């Protein structure tokens, strides 16, 4: 009966084992295990010429990084800007919730948080505009009501 051999293989290194030249997107890489089962990564040019070929090896290409940019939610941004013009408590709460939503959707980035005044400074990425949002206490029941109202508005 054959026993299972558990081997831990670390992730690939950032550079060629031989030349110490950093790997880039699209580079052809050869990874192999030496006699002590250590992983060695080298570029295609160094494989076999400057290294001993391992018995266990695999070739692959470093994939190009895909940057996913979510489409802007113009409707939510428009509602956010409308609530920025109003200063009543209900609008402050809606502005705060929309800011959290837009930050999560990567439409806004928190640039500064003032703990003394409970003020958040967000940058709207599409325009570069800085918007000021007050942190406000929102109770769970209140949050549910505001969210249902905002969802209804955004579905229109």
Task: Describe the model.
It is built from three helices and six strands; from the N terminus they run βββααβββα. The protein has 156 residues and is an alpha+beta fold. It has two domains: 9-66, no CATH class; 74-155, no CATH class. The strands form two sheets. A three-stranded antiparallel sheet has the order 2-1-3, with no helix packed on it.
Concise summary:
The protein has 156 residues and is an alpha+beta fold. The protein has three helices and six strands, in the order βββααβββα.
What's the arrangement of secondary structure elements?
Elements: E1 28-33, E2 39-43, E3 56-61, H1 74-84, H2 89-104, E4 108-114, E5 119-124, E6 130-134, H3 140-155
Antiparallel strand pairs: 1-2, 1-3, 4-5, 5-6
Helix pairs in contact: 1-2, 2-3
Distance between the termini: 66 Å
Largest sheet: 3 strands, antiparallel
Class by SSE composition: alpha+beta
Order of SSEs: EEEHHEEEH
Output the number of helix runs. Answer: 3
- When the domains are counted, the total is 2
Percent of residues in beta strands: 15-25%
Q: Kindly state the number of beta strands.
A: 6
Mean pLDDT rating: 83
Contiguous runs where pLDDT drops below 50 for at least 5 residues: none
Report Rg. Answer: 27 Å
Q: Kindly state the percentage of residues in helix.
A: 25-40%
